From TrEMBL:
Protein name (record): Calpain-9
Domain Calpain catalytic residues, every copy: 216-511
GO BP term, example: proteolysis
Gene Ontology CC terms: cytoplasm; plasma membrane
Pfam families xref list: Calpain_III, Peptidase_C2
Native source organism of the sequence: Meleagris gallopavo
Primary residence: membrane
Length: 903
């Protein structure tokens, strides 16, 4: 048999280094890319490798038939390490010495529209710019090279042949989509904005380096080339990137204050962003946080600027250089009415960098940008369908300094920015700046104040600036409403007329850190982050009852009524992460939503039967493919369960769930505590005579083992398969040799690596119980169970697991269709029991008590080893843990060490 070979030539590495220098990995993500050379070799580039990477030379080779969907450990092992059928279908390979990691590779998950690389053209799984797009898009598998010591290193400049046969390599495993729980977190504070530059340095440090070197800053993370402009096409005309000082003689960052006139749209369809920027200028405190005002082109200028944006529960500090795309010395995109003012153009560039490119900003909702500028939560109302207390909703929103916008729909492109007879502009973004009541002819009249960012063009109907109605209002009332000092473009109108003439209202409710210090009315905010993971927690909506219950479940405690009300008001906002960034890879927004159920009590993950017989108390209005779905609810005090989902099952994404409540609400992730409830093993008592079953086993044992009545793994494999093939209840599939080794590692009390007949009898009782459990959840009698049923099956076997461990197990034991056959189910239970046996007092285990490494890691010689060769595990979107092997551990002397790196 000819082994598969891996070859790393200097040309491959040099080519990849060039790519790494041209485009650095995106913010907050480890930068490892796959790059093909002209010979079809696959190189893994560590663009931002951890400091321990010298021990892990990234080399791998793709053999013919390289699979395009290695999205589980089982399929990776079967397809990648076992191209020849007689190699076997198990993940584990024997290695003569301690393993050393020589490479890891990324594979896209199915149904995400990520095109595989071509063997004939240099490309990457990571997209055209060779960037790692998102944790959800890939799974990673690790290959180990077996060596006698760690002294040998694979130098990048030396061609190296690597034998990928099972004798010399072991597959560590693939990573699940995301291994972290959704936990409540407080809203971030503005001063905690995280530096996002790939160098790990902040704005001030980068600026000082430029000043010391005398060079203007050039941002390698967002280079001045076409890749930063468009991803689906080339620029229609050749753009030149120029600094403001090369465009005008006296550039200014902000000239005379940041106002609406500083925002003029260019040749990019991002008017939604500009409307949000215009609203941003109305709140000085919020503007100063997004656009730090100390920046300028005067003393200390180094060609570097920074802006702060909210993204998925944290504030990010985005650094850019000031090179802007121009054509004939004019800015191509956003620009100011003042030709030498550049804050708005630089803000747009920073936002484009945040989302991957300028093209990524085409099309969107104003509320999306408002949220990114404030960390607030958006609500969108169809005015004609608004609730009866809509006036009160707007009144409370403005008291909390929320950003409120409104607009008039257009029925065709020709109506865009068309003026109505009442002086209003269709398809145009207005700001709502006030709401109040006025005494008029002995009655209270509800008014709303609107601002047109254009200025000049105003409402000319009742209660407009010079209308007759104001003449009948007392001067003191006019003064209170500041009617005589309204800005140009700002006007009052009757709230009843507002509901007739306007169609949409968008409210961005600010988090407490975004409010003025003097503001007394604040929202209470709780934030959860989580994931829908295919095979375990991506259950889809209630239409899919069999999997709906597996979605994340969050418990909401409403304890305090609203002031003067009988109910509790809250806003639930569900946001899917990073979809705009992934447009260049063909990713689209998923349809998302949620349902709210009254809690039956207790803190356990609710089962399928609960949702079968109970209707929801509230739900999102619709499942829709927007970045965020939010709705306002009023429910009586009590406990509720909120279930966030995608519409279709098996769709993976990260999500961020935020609960805004008028009074303090308590939320908790309804993830089950890890617990083990196994029956005590029966005391062996001699029976007067053997059963017929025991007689058959004894005869078979004697035939196979001889007089010592002990069997090794190979002999146990024959015994079990001989017995199980005659079992009518279960659809028989041959047990593997690895399974039998696992059984011996569990049951062998003498430590001789064999199973005695008495030990086998104890195991046989376990096996019969596990067979019955498997049959209960093999609903279609196909010989396999859905991975979504694994939680219930393991609970029936005595193991209550949380999402974290469940994801590991599904990853480790399910196939491409997320089915688990009996052989894998058996291995899973053996692993769990082996892991639990090493825990003192295992009746109530914490998550960390159950050894997750035993569920996933490769051990070179057997499965009962207590050491862990290596484990890579994502713990958050921006961090990973690499449990690396050191020199001592490679010799089998010490357990592994752990290091954590923030990429």
């Amino acid at each position: 048999m000819e082994p598969a070979l891996a070859h790393l030539s200097p040309g491959v590495l040099q080519h990849d280094q060039h790519l790494a220098a041209e485009t650095a990995p995106p913010l907050g993500m480890p930068g490892f890319s796959l790059v093909w050379d002209e010979n079809g070799d696959l190189a893994v580039s560590a663009e931002a490798a951890p400091s321990c990477s010298s021990s892990f030379t990234p080399v791998a080779r793709c053999h013919e038939g390289f699979p395009q969907e290695l999205h589980t450990l089982k399929s990776a092992a079967t397809s990648y390490l076992s191209p020849h059928p007689h190699w076997g279908s198990r993940e584990w390979c024997q290695a003569p010495g301690g393993p050393i990691a020589i490479g890891w590779a990324q594979q896209p998950c199915p149904r995400e529209g990520l095109a595989p690389p071509s063997c004939f053209h240099p490309s990457s799984w990571c997209g055209r710019t060779r960037r790692f797009p998102s944790l959800f898009a890939f799974r990673v598998f690790i290959i180990f090279r077996a060596v006698q010591s760690c002294s040998r290193s694979f130098l990048p400049l030396c061609p190296t042949l690597l034998d990928l046969s099972p004798l010399h390599f072991s597959l560590l495993g693939t990573m699940p989509y995301l291994l972290h729980n959704s936990k409540p977190r407080p809203p971030p504070l503005p001063q905690e904005a995280r530096a996002t530059h790939s160098s790990g340095k902040g704005y001030q440090e980068l600026k000082q380096e430029c000043l010391r070197s005398g060079c203007l800053f050039e941002d390698p993370d967002f280079p001045a080339n076409n890749a930063s402009l468009f991803f689906s096409e080339k620029p229609p005309i050749p753009f030149l990137w120029k600094r403001p000082g090369d465009i005008v003689k006296d550039p200014k960052f902000i000239l005379g204050g940041a106002t609406r006139t500083d925002i003029c749209q260019g040749d990019l369809g991002d008017c939604w962003l500009l409307a949000a920027i215009a609203s941003l200028t109305l709140n000085e405190k919020t503007l100063a946080r997004v656009v730090p005002l100390e920046q300028n082109f005067g003393p200390g200028y180094a060609g570097i600027f920074h802006f702060q944006f909210w993204q998925h529960n944290e504030w990010l500090d985005v650094v850019i250089d000031d090179r802007l795309p121009t054509f004939k010395d004019r800015l191509v995109f956003v620009h100011s009415a003042e030709h030498n003012e550049f804050w708005s153009a630089l803000l747009e560039k920073a936002y484009a960098k945040l989302n991957g490119s300028y093209e990524a900003l085409k099309g969107g909702s104003t509320i999306e940008a408002m949220e990114d500028f404030t960390g607030g939560v958006g609500e969108m109302y169809e005015v004609k369908k608004a609730p009866g207390n809509f006036y009160e909703i707007l009144e409370k929103a403005l008291k909390r300094s929320s950003m409120v916008g409104c607009s008039i729909d257009t029925s065709s492109a020709a109506e865009s920015e068309a003026r109505t007879p009442f002086g209003l502009i269709k398809g145009h973004a207005y700001s709502v700046t006030g709401i109040d009541e006025v005494s008029y002819q002995g009655q209270k009249v509800q008014l709303i104040r609107i601002r047109n960012p254009w200025g000049q063009v105003e409402w000319n109907g009742p209660w407009s600036d010079n209308s007759l109605e104001w003449r009948l209002v007392s001067p003191s009332e006019q003064k209170r409403l500041a009617q005589t000092v309204l800005d140009d473009g700002e006007f009052w109108m009757k709230f009843e007329d507002f509901t007739v003439h306007f169609d949409k209202v968008e409210i961005c409710n600010l988090t407490p850190d975004a409010l003025e210090d003097s503001t007394a009315h604040k929202w209470e905010v709780t934030i959860h982050e989580g994931s829908w993971v295919r095979g375990s927690t991506a259950g889809g909506c209630r239409n899919f009852l069999d999997t709906f219950w597996t979605n994340p479940q969050i418990k909401l405690h409403l304890t305090e009524k609203d002031d003067g009300q009988d109910d509790c008001t809250f806003i639930a906002a569900l946001m899917q992460k990073d979809r705009r960034k992934l447009r260049k890879l063909g990713a689209e927004m998923l349809s998302i939503g949620y349902s709210i159920y009254e809690s039956p009590g207790g803190d356990e993950h609710l089962s399928k039967d609960f949702f079968r017989y109970h209707a929801s108390k509230a739900r999102s209005k619709t499942y829709i493919n927007l970045r965020e779905v939010s709705d306002r609810f009023k429910l009586p005090p009590g406990d509720y369960i909120l279930v966030p989902t995608t519409f279709e099952p098996h769709q993976e994404a990260d999500f961020c769930l935020r609960i805004f409540s008028e009074k303090k609400a308590i939320t908790e992730d309804l993830d089950e505590n890890v617990a083990i409830d196994l029956p005590e093993p029966p005391n062996p008592t001699p029976s007067p005579q053997e059963t017929e079953e025991e007689k058959q086993f004894r005869a078979l044992f004697e035939q196979i083992s001889g007089k010592d009545m002990e069997v090794a793994a190979e002999e146990l494999e024959y015994v079990l398969n001989a017995v199980l093939k005659n079992t009518k209840d279960i659809k028989f599939k041959k047990l593997s040799l690895i399974s039998c080794r696992n059984i011996i590692s569990l049951m062998d009390t003498s430590g001789n690596g064999k199973l005695e007949f008495s030990e086998f009898k104890v195991f046989w009782e376990k096996l019969k119980k596990w067979i019955n459990i498997f049959l209960r959840f093999d609903f279609d009698k196909s010989g396999s169970m859905s991975s979504y049923e694994l939680r219930s099956a393991l609970k029936a076997a005595g193991y209550q697991l949380n999402n974290y461990l469940l994801q590991l197990i599904v990853l480790r034991y399910s196939d491409e269709q997320f089915q688990i056959d009996f052989d894998d189910f058996l291995n899973c239970l053996i692993r769990l029991e082996n892991a639990s046996l090493h825990q003192p007092g295992n009746e109530h285990l914490r998550k960390s008590d159950l050894d997750a490494r035993s569920l996933l890691c490769c051990h070179c010689h057997d499965f009962c080893s207590n050491s862990c060769d290596a484990l890579i595990m994502y713990t958050s979107p921006g961090a990973f843990v690499w449990r690396k092997t050191n020199a001592a551990h490679l010799s089998g002397l010490q357990p592994c060490c752990a290091q954590e790196f923030n990429s």
